[in-house]
Write a structure and sequence with these properties.
Largest sheet: 5 strands, mixed
Radius of gyration: 16 Å
Distance between the termini: 27 Å
Strand order of the largest sheet: 3-2-1-4-5
Strand content: 15-25%
Order of helices and strands: EEEHEHEHHH
Structural class: alpha/beta
Number of helices: 5
Oligomer: single chain
Number of strands: 5
Length: 171
């Protein structure tokens, strides 16, 4: 199984690709999609199109079979949350257009799966990603978060598959 993890952001959208073979997880690639130009000079539609084109290129290059996106949390800045939601829409649209199932995970669930603590900071997440993917060169904190989302999806997908197999065996 090849998983594309996506950490949505309007200025920086992190992505990470891993291969999963049973209990083995292997790093394939990671990076950050950045909106070109100065964000203040670009209209929202142009920024979203830029992210869409970059993420589509990543998807086409690495051909994942699954995708996972971090859920957006709502904060006190409603306008900021709405803008982030638009970037999240792009993050879900690209794999959905390719017919790839998209998992969604809350930030605390990702941290708990990867670090063991639901309120870990970015440095702890990056460290644990490096521990689980030895030798990985991470392109930044957004890419580390995206790899963590992919790892989270790998663990949850494997658990779901074992559960489904047990239910079928019991039937």
């Amino acid at each position: 199984m090849r998983i594309l993890g996506i950490d949505p952001g309007l200025r920086l959208l992190g992505w990470g690709v891993i291969d999963v073979d049973g209990p083995r997880i292997r790093h394939v690639a990671n990076g950050v999609c950045k909106t070109s130009g100065k964000a203040a000079d670009m209209c929202m539609a142009s920024r979203l199109l830029d992210l869409y084109n970059q993420l589509t290129s990543v998807q086409d290059r690495y051909a994942p079979s699954h995708a996972a996106v971090e859920l957006t949390f709502v904060n006190k800045d409603g306008a900021g949350s709405l803008k982030l939601g638009q970037a999240r829409g792009i993050a879900m649209l690209v794999p959905a257009q390719a017919g790839i199932p998209v998992g969604e995970y809350a930030p605390n669930a990702v941290k708990k799966t990867v670090v063991g603590v639901g309120h870990a900071d970015k440095a702890q997440v990056a460290h644990m990603v490096q521990m689980q993917l030895p030798g990985v060169q991470i392109a930044g904190s957004d890419a580390a978060d995206a790899l963590a989302i992919a790892i989270c999806h790998a663990h949850h997908a494997q658990s779901a598959a074992r559960y489904d197999a047990a239910v079928r065996a019991a039937s």
